[in-house]
Amino acid sequence: MYYQTYYQSPLGNLLLVCDEEGLIGLWIEGQKYFLGNIKENIIKKDDHPILIQTQKWLDDYFHQGQPSINDLKLTPKGTQFQQMVWKILCEIPYGQTMTYGEIAKKVAKALNKKTMSAQAVGGAVGHNPISIIIPCHRVVGKDGSLTGYAGGIDNKIKLLQLENVDMTRLYEPRQR
Fold first, then answer.
1. Which of these, 83, 138, 173, 175, could form a disulfide with 92 (CB 3.0-4.6 Å)?
2. Taking 60 as the threshold, does the pLDDT of residue 176 lie above it?
3. Is the CB of residue 13 less than 8 Å from the CB of residue 52?
4. Is the pTM of this model over 0.85?
5. Domain holding 159: CATH number?
6. Catalytic residue flag (residue 136)
């Protein structure tokens, strides 16, 4: 069984979805890959303990707290490669960024490979089903460009500003 509730955030409505084990999804309404690969029916249940705990985490986060990811039981569904990338995302400290290339190097090391494609990492980052909490908004291009956020570049900027990231070294990519 999957359960859902909505959370009103500064970014708009967020859809929170859990099962009995933990949080499996958090999407900004209308974002790319909304609901990911969930095909099953989802029951509205505002009082599910996992959803309540997630809402409290979000309250703290949006009021410039620095809640720990470890306070939540996250159970995103994805491939082994995606899971590896998402785990690395969880290690990016609040208020800091990491490049796709840096993540690719960590994945390559973990897999005992010489190199790993930053584009492959980008695909896994883009399919992160637990936005904000698994902080894919903290990933930037090697040149500091703010690329690749399924929730939209404007929302990525808002989240980075909320975390007081030094935006002087980051920039929006030019439209081609």
1. 138
2. no
3. no
4. yes
5. 1.10.10.10
6. yes
